[in-house]
Every structure is written in C-alpha cells, then in structure tokens.
Amino acid sequence: MTSMSSIVLAASEHADVVPVAADGVFSWMWLLVAIPAVSAAILLIGDGAGDHGPLDRFGHLLGTAAAIASFVVGVVGFVALLGQDVAERAVTQDLWTWMQVGGFDVTMSVYYDQLSALFVLLITGVGSLIHVYSIGYMAHDPRKRRFFGFLNLFIAAMLVLVLAGDYLVLFLGWEGVGLASYLLIGFWQEKRSAAVAAKKAFIVNRVGDLGLALGIMLMFAQFGTTNIHEVGLNVTNASQSVATALGLLLLLGACGKSAQVPLQSWLLDAMEGPTPVSALIHAATMVTAGVYLVVRSAAIYDLSEVARTAVVIVGCVTLLFGAWIGCAKDDIKKALAGSTMSQIGYMMLAAGLGPAGYAFAIFHLITHGFFKANMFLGAGSVMHGMNDDVDMRHYGALRKLMPLTFITFAMGYLAIIGFPGFSGFFSKDRIIESAFATNFWAGLAALLGAGVTAFYMTRVMILTFFGERRWREDVHPHESPKIMTVPLIVLAALSVVGGALTFSDWIEDWLTPVTGSEHHELGVPAWVITLIIVAVVAVGASLAYVLFARRDVPDTAPQQVSVFTRAGRADLYGDAVNEAVFMRPGQYLTRSLVYVDGTGIDGAVTGTAELVGDGARGLRRLQTGFVRTYAAEIFGGALVLVLALLAVNLA
Amino acid sequence: MTAFWLLAPIMVVAALGVVLSRKAVHSALCLAVVMISLAMMYAMQDAPFLFAVQIIVYTGAIMMLFLFVLMLVGVDKTDSLVETIKGQRLVAIVLGLLFGGVLVTVVAQAFVGPVVGLGEANADGNVHGLAKLLFNRYVFAFEATSALLITAVLGAMVLAHRERLEPRRTQRDLALERMQRYAEHGEHPGNLPTPGVYARHNAVDVPALLPDGSTSEISTSKTLRDRGVVRDGAFAGDVSVTMRRLEADGPERGRVEPPPSTPARHDGEEDL
Amino acid sequence: MSAVSVQAIVGAAPSPIEAPDVDYATISPLLIILGAAVLGVLVEAFVPRAYRFVTQIAVAVVGVVAAFVATVVVGAGLDTVDGEVTGRGGPTAMGSLSVDGPAVVTWAMLLFFGLLGVLLFAERRLDGGLSAFTSQASTPPGSADERHATRLRIEHSEVFPLAMFALGGMMFFASANDLLGMFVALEVLSLPLYLMCGLARRRRLLSQEAAMKYFLLGAFSSAFFLYGIAMVYGYAGSFGLAEISTAVSSQIGGQNLLLAGMALILVGLLFKVAAVPFHAWTPDVYQGAPTPVTAFMAAGTKAAAFVAMLRIFFVAFGGARWDWAPAVWAIAIITMLFGAIASIAQTDVKRMLAYSSIAHAGFLLVGMAGLTSGDGVTSVSAVLFYLVAYGAAAIGAFAVVTLVRDAGGETTHLGRWAGLGKESPVLAVAFTIFLLSFAGIPLTGGFISKWSVFAAAWDGGAWPLVVVGVVASALALFFYIRVVVLLFFAPPQGDGPTVAVPSPLTWSVVAITVAVTIVLGVLPGPLLDLVQQAGAFVR
C-alpha cells in the first residue's frame, strides 16, 4: 500500500460543517421514526395473541401504510433539503436529553443531512416496496401480523441508526436492527435451521457490537463526548494512535453488521429467513450499515492511514471471498447472498479509499440496494412459483412461464454485472477507477471481482431461466400475483436508471460537505479502464455461458469437483474456522464451568428438586453434604484474599 | 503475659475438642473450658465485670441450656462422621492449617507494646467505664442489639411454637374416645401394665412378668424397645442361680449374690 | 485479679455519665421502621387472628411510607459540607450513624424496595387465599398437622415485623459510622432473612434447606467479618471509620494487621453481595426461599451491603486504596464472567436470576473501582444508580415468577415458561423488559446503570475492568435473549404455563417496577442528578 502513505488528507474539510437547528419541515423529521415505531408497537402488542381480531386481518395493511407514510415524510424532507443552501443542509433537532452527567450528555436528536437523506429514501422507499411485496408473499402465513410488526420495527430501528447525531443513539439503532434481523431470520422458528441461523447471526453480530461498544467508550474516554459531530471535531486534535484504535474498533463493528471477513459467516445462513427479509435487511439496507458507519466516521478514518488500509484490505478480501462463494452455491438465495457480501466488499473498499471513495461507496450502496432487492424479490417470486424450492438445479427454462419475473430479474442481472448504461455499470466503474488510482493491487482485486461477478450471475441467470426444465414433478411454475410483480417492476426500473445519480457528478457534489472529496488522477484515461472492465465482464459472462448453457446441468451437485468449488460450497471454511477458534474453546469453557458448578455446587440442588419427593433421606444428605463444600469454598476464598492483600504489601 | 501463654494452649486444645468430639456433650464441655479460660483472660486484662458476666451468663446460663438441650435430644447420640465428599477433609485440614498459619504470622508480626490507656479507661471503675461506652458512644448499636434479640425470640416462636388449633380435649373426651376405640378395634381401654411387676427389677427397662412367667412386651416404653435396650426381667435364671449358690455355699446360706455376669441385652431366651 | 481492678470495682464516687446526645429527628426514618417492627410484634400478640394479617400489612405499609416521608424531610434538610469533596450531612447519634447524602439516598431506595416487598408479602390471591408463607413452620412438611393448619387458614403474619427488622438492619448497615455498629447491623439484617427463607408454603424441604444453608454460611462469613474488625481495631485502636482513616494515612508499622483485617472484612461483605468465590449460597437460597422474600432480599441486601462496603473502603480504608483495589479488580472480573457464563446453563428461572444477581455484583464491583471524586460520574453515584435500577428490575422479575404457576405452586423450570407470551402477553413483555434491563439494553435502566459504572471505572483508570465488563455483558445478553425467545416463540410444553390472577398488590408491583425500569432508561436525568448531588460519604 505504498501509494496510500503518500496521501495526506485534509481532515478538516468536512468537520467545519455547522449543523443548523431544525425548523419548518425539518422539525417533523422525528415522524420518520415515530410512524413505523408506533405501528410496530400496535402490531406486536396489539390485541390478544392468536385471535382473529381486526389487527390480524388488516395488520399488514397498517404496516405497509406506515412504511409508505414514512417514505412520504422522507421525500418531503429530501425536497426541502434540496431547497436549502449548501451550508445549511445539515439539520439537527434535539428531542430530549437522554442522560446528562457532569460534562457528559447524550441528547436524543435527529441529525438530518445529505447522507442521512439518501439513506432515509433508500430505507423507506425500498422498504415500502418490500412491504407491498410481502403482502403477496406472506398472504397465507398465519402470523402475518407479527411479520409486519417486525418489518416496521426494523424500519424504525434502521432510521434511528441513520438519523442519529450521537454514537450512543446510533448504537441504539444498531442493536435495534440486530434484534429485528434476529427475529426475522428466525421468523419460521419451527424450522430448526432457521432458529440456528438466527442464533448464529446474533452471536456473530455480538462480536462486532463489542467493537463498536468499545469504540464508543474510547471516544468517551478520550473526548468526553459521543456526539458524532463533536467527535469529528475533537479527533483532529487527538493522537494518531487514538484515531487508529477508533478506526479499527469501528471497523470491527462494521464487519459484524456488514458480513465482512472475518465476521462473514452469518449472512449465508441468514437466508433461512423469509425472502422479503433477505431482500430488505440482508441485501438492501441493514448489511450496508457498516458502510454507513465508516462513511459517517469519515473524520476518524481520514486521520488514520492504518485504519483506512485495514478497511481496504477487508473490502478486497471480502469482495473476492463473496464472489467465490457465489460461484459455488446451488441455492439461489445463497448465491445471491455471496454476491451481496461481495458487493458490500466493493463498498468497503471504496470507503477505505478515503474522501476519494466515500461518495462512490454510497453510490454503489444505493444502486446495489435497488438491484439486489430486485433480484432477491425476483428469487422470491421464482421460489413462490416453485413450491419454495431453492435449488437452482431444479429450475430451468422459467423465462416463458414467469415473463415478468424474468425481465425484472434480467434488469437486476445486467445492473450487477455492470452492463454499460445500467446503474451498476456506473457505480462499480467508479469504484474500480478510484481503486486503481489509489492502489494498483486494490484495483486489480476489484477488477477481478467484476469478472467473477459476471460469471456467477450469468450462471444464476442460465440455471434459472434458460436451458432445460429440470422441475420436480409436482411443481407447476406460474407467475406471481400483481402485488408481488409491481414492486419488482419498480425496482427493475430503478436498477436501470439508478446510474443517473452520478450524471454531472451529482452524488459526489451532494455528499461533499459530509465526506469531503478528492480526486486522484489515473495514469491512463478513464475510458481505458472502463473498456478493460467491460472486457473482463464479457469474459466472465462468456465463460459462464460456455460452462452452463452449452452443457447439461446435473440434477444433483457433482461431487467430483475441484478444491476451489468444494471450498466455495463450504463457505470457504468460515464456519470451520469459527468453530475451531472460537466455538470449541468457548464450549469447553462453559462446559468446564458448568461442570464445576454442576458437580461441586449445583448438582446438589438440581438434584434437590428431584429429591424433594424422596423426602428426608435425600434432604439430610444434602444438608450435611454440601454446606461444608460451600464453606470450604468461602474459606479458600478468604485465604486467597488475605494472601493477595498481603502480597500487595510484600511486592 | 504468663497467664496468657498458660491459658492459650488450653483454649486451643479445648476449641479443637469442640469441633472434633464425637459426642455432643463432650463438645459442650470443651466449650465450657474455652469460655472459662476466656473469662480468666478478661480478668487478666483488668475487666472484672466482663469476667463475671462471662462466667455467669455464658458458662452458667448458656452452657447449661446447651447441656439441657443435649440431654433432651439424647446424650449418647453421636453424629455420623462418615465423610461422603471426596477430598473434603483434606481440603478442610489444609485450608485450616494454611489459614491459621497466615493469621498467626500476621498477628505475630504486629507491633506489641506495653498496654496503654487501661488505667484511663478504668479510671472510674471498670463497670463505670463500660457503662460510659455502652450508654453514650455506642448507645445506638446497643439499642439496635435489642432488635436482634426480639428477632431471635420471634424466630424461636415461629419455628418451634405450635399453636393450639382446636380446643383442649377434656378427660371426658379422652375417655369417650378410648371406649370408642375399644368398641371398634377391640383396643384395651385401660392402663398398660407397668414395667417391672413381678420381675427381678422394677426399672423402666425391665418388662413385667405375666402370671405364666412370660414377659409382657407392652409394659415397656416403645422407645426403649425400639432402641433394643430392654432387659430380661425373668426370675427363672436368678432362681436357679440362687439355688445353686445356696447348695454350694452351705454355711453361709441365706446370702443371695447377684448372678456371676450381669445379664446382657437379648440373652434372656435360654433362661426362660 | 490484680489489686488495681479490685480497687476499681469498689472505687469511690465515679463521675456521672452524661446522657447521650441523639438527634432523634435526623435518625427518625430508622426509628420509625424499628418502631413499626416492634409494633408488629405487639400486634402479633394482642390482635385477634381474624384481623391480624390485615393489621400487620397496615402497620408495615404505614411504617414504610412514614419512614420514606421522614427520609425525604431529612434529606432535604442536610447541610452541605465543603471539604476536599462536597458532601451533605454528617455523623449523628454520638457518631454511630453517618446520615449523609449517600445514606439518605440508600434509605429511600431501601424503603422503596421494602414497600414493594411488603406488597408482595401481602399477596393472598395466588394460592387459594393464602399467603406465600407456610401455615405453621413448626409442623413437619407434608404432615397431617400441616394440612390441618392449612385447612384452618392459619398464616404466619410474623413475616411483616421480621421484614421490618431486616429493613431496619439494612438501613442501619448503610449508614453505620463505626465497625461495631456495622456488625450489629449486619446481624440485625441477616437474622430475619435467615428465618424468612425457611417459611415457604410450597416445597418446604427446599425452603428449609435454603434457610439452613444461608444461616450456616452467613454465620461463617460474619465470623470472618468480625475477625477482620478485631484486626483493624488492633491496628487502629478504634472502631470509628474516621479514626481508622486517620490511622491508615498516618500510622507506620503493623501494616500486615491492617491488610489481613481489610481482607477479612471484605470476605464478610462480598459474601453478602454474592461475589465469587463467596457466592455459592446464592442460587440455593434464592431458589428455596419464598419468592417474595427472594425479591426483597435480592434487592435490599445487595443495596445495603454495597453501600456499606463503599463506606468502609472509601472512608476508612481510602488511604490504602492501592492495597485493596487489585483484589477488588480480580474479584470483579471473576464474578462478572462467572455469573454471565454460569447463567447460560441454568434451567430454573429463580436460579438463573440468582446467577444474574452474581454477575451484577461483579458489575457493581467495577463501579467500586471508579473515581472517588471529580467532575464525572463518581463511584458512589454510579453504584447508587445501579442499585436502584437493578433492585427494581429484580423485584419485578421475582414478582413475575410468583405469578407463573401450576398445580404444585410456582413453576420455575424454564421449559415450563415456553409460550408465556401467548398465555399472558403483558406478563411476558414485563419479564422481557426486566431481562433486557439486566442485559443492559438501551432504553432500560440497566443500560444507563451499566454505562454509569463503566464510565466511573473508566475515569478511575480501571479500563481492563470495563473491557471485561463489556464482554461479560455481551455473553449475558445471549442468554437473556434466549429466554425472551423462549417466552415468545417456543412451543409450549403440554398445556403451557398457567398465569394466576393476582390481586392489585402484585400487579402494582409489576407495574411500578416496569415503569421505573423504563423511566430510568429513557429519562434517567432526575435520578442521576439526585445521586450526583448526594455527594460523597461524610465521616
């Protein structure tokens, strides 16, 4: 990373934004959170459980209406923000003081600026579409009301996350989306795999949260504040090592939430959740929260080259890692999940490039939100028609029977591989260019990733929509109802035109006050890079065509495959590593503690409950038996304590 | 200090005896030794009031209560000393030795100087000085102790007192009940035979003899029967022994001696 | 007996003893509670059985409320003392009590817990019109006499005066200004608790076993405490905390005596707060004791013992801080991790709450390692806040435990709680809120309290403790969420749990504790201000 060390960043560029107090429209921004939150509360607490009250019949409509209402507020706010002066586009509104101790206070505030505004539109917009789609997808689920309650809860928490003006409040939203994600992955908890996946997501995310929590504490310890804006101001006076530590801790948090290596393992399993959930949470919005965190903390990353380098490395590794997994999976949702991981790797990579890349990270995040949500919903539509079969080897030749799904999916496909003119083309192109401009190796990784992306997405496309029919006997594919296809059409349209955001550098200019900007000159003209990218993509796609369209697709996955495929199928042994490094020792620890507790301490009493029936004999044994063990423990503890204190004196 | 070094080993040995004795009575007696030694230590340190109180209250009253309770429970009752937890004894002994060693070291290292302030504290007499502390500086703690005592009394009541749940039964009720039982189950309505009647001894553990020379089981207390300490009260053995003696002794006739061996428990069968 | 002492006994004309000078108004809350306890004993003796239970409730409630009012009045009238650190109030009752800011806040807190406890004690609608306490403790469990007593609807209303004695002892413990008073207070608070633990109506053998264990181990640990006091007296020549403090900072020599004394005193206190390795009694006793007693004990004992511990170690041993701090650090770390990990394996709700209580003792010890004075959150204020938040949530959680029942009384096996969300959503949500507060999730009191102890520790330079604390919280969170999932999503076993319909007494306890837990999470400002203004201990 030699070329990066030469960059000395002007960190103060975006720290001099002065937030203005909210008035007019902006004083109503809290409604963004309040509407879905209230709706979630109504849906989840609501009337008694299980009865068929009005909430069970109309609850999903209420949930959808709440998401749409929130979207409307978001649009109004965005339009109003467009009308503001550039200098006044960061608006803050204090709602109430959460806690105040000595010099420390945390205010519950809404911080609405250019970055938040884009996120709000993405979350509520895509969120609303997915709510609409879910009306069709979950039509026959008996616990529909709860599903919509969780979705609303997620929207509210995600909005808290992006509207937070304080890291502690951001953490609140962060935990909120984690909870919603956990609840939704495990929504069909009667499936053991779903319950396990939910638990896994939760635990892996805890590791990331630990990083974020420690980061926040470090901020508090260093600067005495956790306000994002003030931390940004203070960090410029802090030492290099503090900024690096902060950057790495926040990166750990981001890795957890955004499924980046080494905390990637939960995302593939998270596909056990209902497909709209995969689309909304595990593709379009929540998993991008890590990218948001890095961009939001731009002030910190600007000061630490080490931290930025770490972000770049994580991004590069993940984008190749995810792509590799995407190539090997036969489960359509897992293939898409691998792709999601990979695309977020792109965003991380861009975010790690510093001011040169922040805007592109966000740009790719938005276009990815469109096309990936589109493709997930398309996959959901396919599954809907195929009796919830997820194995692509059982699909084939669906383009005739599901024309709308096919066309919309194709739009998403063209966008993700970066077909010229589609949104992904612009956003990915920008990232690869900036990567090359900053560091050759990062650029090369990104370029390679683009080729692999084209390969595995073409594979998905061919296996699903082209070739022979390989359906099971009782499957009668059919197009999904309108309520599901309309959101698909809207998202497909956005996947096509999303690239327009970058015309005349609009999104870069728009985000400059938040992220700063910087332009690195390339050694070669930009169009050369573009051509190379298109060529690599074409190679990847053709390779897939040759491999999968020209040959018969076996009905079960072949076992005699290369090491690479096997590794990909096993998620590159991520679980095995986790198991060996973390889970087993942890289990031994708990087991040994439980063993000590169980035999020495506890066995007596777990026994007691059963022994009560046996009467006095058992009881007497316990009374004379175990108090003396306790007493010996206390005695030993006292001895150690006395010796410890005396040792302090001797030392 | 001489008195201390004389008393201290006695106290330690006695204290170990409290913990290690097999019989509760021995423990209690060892405890009495500890308390008396303690009282002497008080006396040695010019605290005659405490000395008196220690003797009167602890050794006199409390120890006697202990002993009463032990007598009621049964003097010869010993606890089962089988240790069921592996390593518990070893751990306890090792910990005890280490702990004792550490504390002895610590206290031994402490600065020991001449006693100061004793005269001042006892200036108006020991009792007066004590009263001054109890009713002035530590009056609140002293008063709070009463809460402790009330709690203790209340606790004893709660745990041990069984309230009369129905009116006391009169003689008449009892007699009626007895006759009722006789009518229904044929249970003997009168008194049970008293122990020792016609038997060799009239002690409570010797059953009465029936007219045919056999013993009456029900004449002794059930508790004694269960414990297996009922003795054989038959004359048969004694008569034969006496007769033998009379024959053998000749000149000293008329003198009855006890049988050569005290009849042991449960060995009466062949004598019958 | 030497000649000197003989002369002393018969000595002439001793000077008169002055009457102690006690400011009764300042210590009135304590006197009111102890008075209510004594009055309760008289009620037990003289009021006919039919009215006894109700009269006892009335005496206890009136006593607690009156004492609370008195506490507020006393607290408002405390003079500010300016020294190195700002404090309020000071020693009274001949120096036996220190009625300072923290003491008054603790009194108010304990009285609040006491009121909630009395309300739970008074609940009689859950078990066929009878309280949670056994009909006659003297009858053997399962005997005909016991059934007879139950049939006659006899109850032990002595629990109310006992609770008042325990409450008085706790208040004394938190404000005692010398080690002698502390020891007496420790016994006054413990003895009634030992007793009450053994009085459960259901599963009496378990309850009696718990009481026995608690009593034996409690006596064992008080012996350590007493031994420690003796050693410290030997070192400093006084029981008074102020005099000990002077000796600690000025005296040279005999250091080992002081260190051993501190360690032994610490043993006694750590036993009461249930810190590892002195925690072994906690699960057994919490499980065996009647649940209302467990609730009262979990909140009250921990609060009183922690405040007393802070008082001893900050006031008397403050000068030797660097001698005891490493040990406290180590115990805090072990306790947090042990409590968090061991709770994962529990299958009984009450045992789980007991292990959670152990883990919370660890977090509170983290607070103890914090700043003693300064601008930010001090140890004392952080710990006080934590105790309020934890105590409220603990009482609420145990109140919920009293409501989930089957034919044999409370059903505490976690498996039997599956599907509570369907059976009684309100109760399940309440329990969830308590668990989230234990876990330290934002918007609950538990979050702010964890945050405040961590902040205090961080400011005090104890950052390793904070790191371990965060790790332990994350571990514990996993477990609590597992329980929440069980409540709402797991299929019920058999017919699922039955939720008894309680009287307004228990409902109000649940409602109040939920409200406190949420309010402390959303608007912690007023209480944080209060504990900040309470200032430091005054000796």
TrEMBL record, chain B:
EC number in record: 7.1.1.-
GO cellular component entries: plasma membrane
Main subcellular location: membrane
Transmembrane domains' residue ranges: 6-21, 28-45, 51-73, 93-118, 138-160
Reaction equation(s) it catalyzes: a quinone + NADH + 5 H(+)(in) = a quinol + NAD(+) + 4 H(+)(out)
Function: NDH-1 shuttles electrons from NADH, via FMN and iron-sulfur (Fe-S) centers, to quinones in the respiratory chain. Couples the redox reaction to proton translocation (for every two electrons transferred, four hydrogen ions are translocated across the cytoplasmic membrane), and thus conserves the redox energy in a proton gradient.
Record family assignment: Belongs to the complex I subunit 6 family.
Name of the protein in question: NADH-quinone oxidoreductase subunit J
TrEMBL record, chain C:
Reaction it catalyzes: a quinone + NADH + 5 H(+)(in) = a quinol + NAD(+) + 4 H(+)(out)
Designated name of the protein: NADH-quinone oxidoreductase subunit N
Originating species: Mumia zhuanghuii
Major localisation: membrane
Signal peptide limits: none
Enzyme class: translocase
Physiological role: NDH-1 shuttles electrons from NADH, via FMN and iron-sulfur (Fe-S) centers, to quinones in the respiratory chain. The immediate electron acceptor for the enzyme in this species is believed to be a menaquinone. Couples the redox reaction to proton translocation (for every two electrons transferred, four hydrogen ions are translocated across the cytoplasmic membrane), and thus conserves the redox energy in a proton gradient.
Keyword annotations of the record: Cell membrane, Membrane, NAD, Oxidoreductase, Quinone, Translocase, Transmembrane, Transmembrane helix, Transport
InterPro entries xrefs: NADH-Q_OxRdtase_suN/2, ND/Mrp_TM
TM annotation in the entry: 24-45, 57-78, 104-122, 159-176, 182-202, 214-236, 256-281, 293-318, 324-345, 352-371, 383-404, 425-449, 461-489, 501-523
